[in-house]
Amino acid sequence: MTPDQNDLWFLPLGGTGEIGMNLNLYGHDGQWLMVDCGVTFPKPGRVSADGTVHHRGEPPVQMADPAFIADRRDQLAGLVITHAHEDHVGAVPYLWPLLQCPIYTSRFTAEILRRKLAEFELLHRVPIIEVDTGDTRQIGPFSVQWLALTHSIPDPNALVIRTPIGRIFHSGDWKLDAQPLVGHGYKKQTFTELADEGMDAMVCDSTNATVAGHSISEAALHKGLLDAVRCSEGRVVVTCFGSNIARLHTLGLIARETGRYMGLLGRSLINMSGAAKAAGVWDSSDRLINPSHLGYLPRDEVLVVATGSQGEPRTALRRLAAGTHPDLELESGDTVIFSARAIPGNEEAIDGLIARLKEMGVRVVTAEHSPVPIHASGHPAQEELQAMYQWVRPKIAIPVHGEAEHMDVHARIAKDCGVSKTLVGRNGDLFMIRPVPGMRRQIAETGRLGWQKQELVRVE
After folding, report:
1. Confidence of residue 453 (pLDDT cuts 50, 70, 90)
2. Do 31 and 173 sit in the same domain of this protein?
3. Gap between the Cα atoms of 285 and 80, Å rounded
4. Does the reported pTM lie above 0.90?
5. Which domain, by its residues, includes 333?
């Protein structure tokens, strides 16, 4: 199955009909362009949207099976990574040997990617081309332009994919945040100009399509987090997603305002902060102290940011709750703040962690029960989706990055905004954008691969 010069196709192998392990293909004139290459972390006992029943003993890191494009890698023009979240970039070290194509991405994402590749001894084998927001690169028959949007990580980008026969707007993960605190913002004009040019299709994030209203800005969290820290007498530990450099910036400011020293606990947090410094998106006024010094400071002078907001095993917060962390020990009267919401499937692990902390006499503050916001999602709620459709005005809406309920609601929003055609499908479905819009179900075989015992295995 090869697209000819009159075809413009979209073929998702992962991330459509589910949230996680994104892997998208665009086809035109005998070649394919891949957008994103991510992983997922399945929980035993949970049933994924694709019907996969997860059990103990299966690989803890999983990704979309790239067999369709790996069998055609001579037709793969390149891989574009929209941003540095694990569900968009995490599978590259595992799958690149099967793909062997150049990778195009922004400076911060490239910094994260290089660190991952180095762990697999691939750093000097993989060609990484850094691009700036606004740049346009010719990748095979595809002219790809990077557009500024906001998300919960530095340097997220939407894409415009242009060919001689059609144009596609690929949103990536996004929200409309007027004050993102870190990284580039966005301009309405960028997207209204796309409408003037004419977009044949908009392939767009559905994660929060069921959420009414507008997402909260990162800047709006300062008051809630400051109040939570100020009313704490002992040590304060904040757990959040380590990739949210803006949240770390807010906490660094709060540390200075409250006379506390800030330190990071957890490999991913330390890695992300190092990448942010290398990429020039770390505020120089945010000074961190060595984690090994935290235990020697007066309790009321400590503000720790720790990994483990989802109750994951072996993370810093789990070790603190177990009393096994080498750098710090929690005591009765200390406070733990969850500046993150539970990812579906993690509720049981988080509840168990909170129960253990409370048994220790630790005060726990969660985003769900805080009277003021202490967490903001990185994805668009309904008002933001409506705004984007009104700005871009595509001919076709293709909801992705969501389970069935999210994508169905997303499609209704698009129709209500005047989009004449919506195509809702699943991984393996072929979305034909040109010459005649339509879908062919389950054209490509899909599945999962897992990383276990230093090799890729098929997940049944």
Report:
1. confident
2. yes
3. 33
4. yes
5. 218-366
